[in-house]
Design goal:
Shape: elongated
CATH class of the largest domain: Mainly Beta
Number of strands: 14
CATH superfamily of the largest domain: Apoptosis, Tumor Necrosis Factor Receptor Associated Protein 2, Chain A
Number of helices: 4
CATH architecture of the largest domain: Sandwich
Distance between the termini: 53 Å
Number of domains: 2
Order of helices and strands: HHEEHEEHEEEEEEEEEE
Amino acid sequence: QCQNGHVACFSCWSWLSNKCHVCSHDAIFARNIALEKIVESIKSSCAYAKWGCCNLVSYAQRSTHEEACLFAPSTCPIPGCGYRGFTGCWSGHFLVDHSADCLHFVYGQPFEVNLEVSLPFLVLLGEDDHLFLLLNKNMMPFGHAFTVVCLRTGNLNWKFSYEIITASGGNPENSLQLKASVTNTKEWGGMHPAEAFLLVPYDFCSSTSLTLHVAVARSASV
């Protein structure tokens, strides 16, 4: 506020050049602590309230809360895309922009994946629109490490688990199997979960591809 008590918000004050926009006098602006306290006491709904966030946040805390909010959107994992979407709203985006880049599946039903060993991940889209990534990390000199993560935000009412089975291309009697819980992540930036993964030796793969049998199960959180 200026010496006469006229108030300007911070963004406007930055271009007033110490001249009051009300009384037009040269002024030395000072913080209006009383008005700041009033503004800080006002709480409003999170920007992601319609997606399930019930928090009421103050003006000062709004940006910090929304950056960390469980219900904030996730970024599409396809390189160069930049689309930000919410849990339950991914199928439309992939149908329009990445129709060839994802595999739809039904919970509890095994499905076959023929994966190029050079691909870092494959997008799996559940019947309820939850978005999963089948991650593939080259673990030289041992083989490929496979794991499944769920790229989701919002209410974690569901628990997911997965199973991966693969057989050796040279000797089908040799097989590997993993059963594990799905790791949840808001954003995937190239980091691979280390808690559980299936390490498939290079000898199980052909020169360019590998066949996996995958199943993802869903159960209600207690």
